[in-house]
Design brief:
CATH superfamily of the largest domain: Topoisomerase II, domain 5
Structural class: alpha+beta
Helix content: 25-40%
CATH class of the largest domain: Alpha Beta
CATH topology of the largest domain: Topoisomerase II, domain 5
Distance between the termini: 100 Å
Radius of gyration: 42 Å
CATH architecture of the largest domain: Alpha-Beta Complex
Number of helices: 18
Largest sheet: 5 strands, mixed
Number of domains: 5
Number of strands: 48
């Protein structure tokens, strides 16, 4: 009743018509939410920093220890035993236990415990069995130093925290959602955690990065020590089996093969990628075969899988733990430091208990020896009372106890009276002395450990690594990811159309002019006759402006596509020529490429993907006394400027028409291209090895381990596989030298050849399945050393040095070559090539972009009227 009255008062606290009503929660309701939130945070969702366990996990481990007899227990039995300590039902306990078992660290499992790779669930708890692993028994439990508390119903005792002597929280990871906060601690590598703990104890710096049981490739550049705000990117490991098949052999953390395949099929249905079929051959290891239709690029498809499917995902860690019954946000480095420091304290506590027990054993062994050796037991024969017996023993001991480390107590004397006559009669003084000396040696050893506690802890960690580290190497490969632009790798399965006169573009205008293939995530760039430009998203039908003269898919940050344009500036105005790029825009904004005057008209327009500069012919109308009505203009003489530039004056007279006279070549400087070994891609950002300066017609030479030579255009989106032996700029005049083993003839052959045509792939060794490439060189004058096998009972033949240039002349790529030797070859090694001076290239005129300045008019011929006008006129 009190609560209801308080609520009514609060509701009447504001007059009628008030915009807000403040209701105070009092009485029983006041603390309910806070109690619930505290309970979820402390007792369910967030692990403790001391042992890395959530309460249900801790109770499962305690139950397993109580049931431990070396044999397997039914999981259902363990769950039932855990329910003595856990206030929730059996389902939550069974699920938590399966999660611990799947991490393959603390629990030795038997039966079907599910598959983290495929997402298959574990069998029912009555069918599967478990016991503590040897690692768990050694690291997690130590009853003598464990703090105990009553269970939820007061009938049993359970540990407050388990004395875990290992960074278990970081090894297993943890994830949970509580009220108002969550935690996501990623798993880390077993060996790396031990190495980092040792480094911390030695006062050295260390870094920790996640390692996932599903393996995969990870980019940890923004890991931020596992704290809030950090992020890691995870990718599946995808390789090319053949030109029409991709193999996914590792999957990202947080996915399984089923969800991964579903995401690929979904992307295929949406047209983002194009695949033929998928086969899931996953068993103990992941193997997903992605079959591609003919004509689809495997490299591009790999990028598309990363861009549009679960083959790549981002994980945001959040390091939240419980310390002193409060949530605390810290990084993984701090977690490891606290774990290592706590391990030292636990080891110290165990050593102190061990020392106390050894000293107690030494004390009683010494008393027992004195009691029996000096026959003090005879002093009690005439005593008739218990007090008299104790007094007689105490009196008999006093002359011999000066060397003892503590005083003799009544309990000590009582224990002496409990020694059996059989033990006294068989007492061996030498064995007793040896026992005491062994105890003294153990005491000295424990004291030494206590005096050198850090060294002892380091040795403890090393012991864990040697005993349990086998097979726990890092699974996730750390790499730096290259950013994939979705528009560059998406399959363009939609057709773009344009109605030039009406000014519409879109994918639904099937009766109009076809432009190009596109995708629904593309942007398109449109130019109109009145000198306007717009970039807009692909849609079914979009109005951009009447009289469209050019439309294409727009590439962001494209600094090589150059637009050449000649336009009339307003009604009766002069004509200008300009060249420009479009690199950054605001979508759906109309840009004016001229000066905004009404009746502006574009006379000539071209889009050039590699900065080509053509030659045009300008034809003027016959007006007045104009003598020169026709002349040529070369766009190579015009500087490339911004899209807002006015351009250079062509003529102030009326233009009749402009015609294309001659196609041009690129006016852009050659592009430097590097190969980045880390991401195995080309780039223009200076990362990796410089391959050279490439013009539009230059190609790359690639030679693979399979004996295939191919020349391709340098595409920055191409992914190069691991079998590549040679990657360099192709010189059509430079011969290639190869030594290979012919499987059919079982002999080594040498050949020298030239690749005669570009954009071609050819096999230059024989097709026999046992044929293989031994050595390949792109040096002008290569030298090789042949090492021969030693025949039985004969002296081995000395190594032979071969000048390949003189060994064989240059022949066709399909030629077999000359036999290297008839002797059995052990190995062939490449030596330093002979000196060679490359011939100077032919003197060709390279057109380059000059500094920004107006082109000077031709004074000899004058302007269109032949009088040398004052305007800048281009000829």
């Amino acid at each position: 009743m009190e609560e209801n009255e308080d609520l009514n008062e609060a509701e009447n606290a504001h007059p009628e018509g008030s915009q807000e009503t403040l209701t105070k929660v009092t009485g029983m309701y006041k603390d309910w939410f806070l109690d619930y939130a505290s309970y979820v945070i402390l007792e369910r969702a967030v692990p403790a920093i001391e042992d890395g366990f959530k309460p249900v996990q801790r109770r499962i481990m305690h139950a397993l220890k109580e049931l431990d007899d070396g044999r397997y227990n039914k999981v259902a039995n363990v769950v039932g035993h855990t329910m003595q300590y856990h206030p929730h039902g059996d389902a939550s306990i069974a699920d938590a236990m399966v999660q611990i078992g799947q991490k393959d660290l603390l629990i030795d499992t038997q039966g079907n415990w599910g598959n983290i790779l495929t997402g298959d669930r574990a069998a029912a708890s009555r069918y599967i069995e478990a016991r503590l692993s040897k690692f768990g028994l050694e690291v997690v439990f130590s009853p003598k130093i464990t703090e105990w508390q009553l269970s939820y119903d007061g009938r049993k005792k359970e540990p407050v925290n388990l004395p875990v002597k290992f960074p278990l929280l970081l090894a297993q990871g943890a994830e949970g959602i509580a009220v108002g906060l969550s935690t996501k601690i990623l798993p880390h590598n077993f060996k790396e955690l031990i190495d980092a703990s040792i480094k911390h104890l030695r006062g050295q710096r260390f870094k920790l990065f996640p390692d996932f049981p599903t393996a995969g490739i990870i980019d940890v550049g923004n890991y931020n020590d596992g704290m809030r705000g950090g992020k890691i990117r995870v990718r599946a490991k995808i390789s090319q089996l053949d030109k029409n098949t991709l193999v996914i052999s590792e999957i990202p953390h947080g996915t399984n093969t089923s969800s991964l395949i579903d995401s690929i099929l979904k992307a295929n249905d949406k047209g983002k990628i194009k695949i033929k079929k998928i086969e899931d051959n996953t068993a103990a290891e992941v193997e997903i075969l992605v079959h591609l239709p003919s004509g689809i690029s495997p490299d591009k498809t790999i990028d598309a899988l990363y861009a549009f499917t679960s083959c790549e995902s981002s994980i945001s860690p959040l390091g939240c733990i419980i310390e002193d019954n409060k949530p605390l946000f810290i990084g993984v480095s701090e977690m490891l430091k606290r774990s290592a420091d706590l391990t030292v304290e636990l080891l110290k506590a165990e050593l102190e208990i061990q020392l106390a027990e050894l000293e107690e054993q030494w004390h009683f062994a010494s008393l027992e020896r004195i009691f029996i050796e000096n026959r003090i037991y005879r002093d009690i024969e005439e005593e008739e009372t218990w007090e008299g017996v104790l007094g007689a023993i105490d009196k008999g001991l006093k002359p011999h106890t000066k060397h003892l480390r503590r005083a003799v107590t009544e309990d000590d004397i009582v224990r002496l009276t409990e020694i059996r006559i059989k033990r006294i009669s068989k007492f061996d003084l030498d064995k007793a002395q040896q026992h005491i000396e062994s105890l003294e040696a153990k005491i000295a050893e424990v004291k030494h450990h206590l005096a050198h506690l850090i060294d002892f802890a380091i040795d403890y960690f090393k012991s864990l690594k040697s005993k349990y580290g086998k097979g726990r190497e890092r699974k996730s490969e750390i790499r730096i990811f290259d950013d994939i632009e979705a528009t560059k790798v998406v399959i363009r399965n939609t057709k773009l159309y344009v109605n030039r006169e009406e000014g519409f573009v879109g994918t639904s205008l099937r009766r109009d002019e076809y432009v190009t293939d596109c995708s629904d995530i593309d942007d398109i760039i449109v130019f109109t006759q009145d000198g306007k430009m717009m970039v807009t998203k692909v849609d079914a039908k979009t109005f951009v402006g009447k009289h469209i003269i050019h439309v294409a898919v727009f590439k962001k940050r494209d600094s090589r596509t150059t637009y050449n344009m000649v336009y009339k500036d307003g009604k009766g105005g002069p004509s200008y020529i300009k060249r420009f790029n479009v690199t950054s825009i605001t979508r759906d904004k109309m840009y004016d490429l001229a000066n905004g005057k009404p009746l502006t008209t574009v006379y000539y327009f071209s889009a050039n993907p590699n900065g080509e500069a053509e030659t045009i012919t300008v034809n003027l109308r016959q007006v007045g006394s104009i003598k020169k009505l026709k002349w040529d203009l070369d766009f190579a003489d015009v500087l490339i400027k911004g899209r807002a530039s006015k351009g250079n004056l062509v003529t102030k007279y009326a233009v009749k028409r402009i015609e294309l006279k001659e196609q041009g070549v690129s006016t852009l400087k050659p592009r430097k291209i590097w190969f980045d070994e880390v991401v195995r891609r080309l780039n223009v950002d200076g990362r990796g090895e410089l391959l050279g300066e490439f013009r539009g017609e230059d190609l790359l030479l690639i030679i693979t381990q399979k004996g295939i030579a191919k020349t391709v255009a340098p595409n920055l989106s191409t992914r190069f596989d691991e079998e590549m032996l040679v990657l360099e700029k192709w010189n059509p005049k430079k011969p290639l030298s190869a030594i290979y083993y012919d499987g059919e003839k079982e002999r080594y052959y040498v050949k020298r050849f030239i690749i005669e045509s570009g954009n071609k792939e050819e096999l230059f060794i024989t097709e026999h399945p046992k044929s293989y490439l031994e050595l390949v060189s792109t040096d002008w004058r290569p030298v090789a050393e042949v090492e021969f096998s030693k025949p039985r009972g004969k002296e081995s033949k000395q190594n032979q040095t071969i000048d390949l240039e003189n060994f064989i002349t240059i022949k066709g790529i399909k030629a077999l070559g000359n036999q290297l030797t008839t002797d059995k070859v052990k190995s062939v090694n490449s030596l330093d090539p002979l000196p060679y001076e490359e011939p100077e290239p032919h003197d060709t005129k390279d057109i380059e972009v000059i500094d920004e300045e107006n082109v000077v008019p031709d004074k000899k011929n004058g302007g269109p009227n032949g009088q040398g006008t004052d305007q800048t006129t281009l000829f």
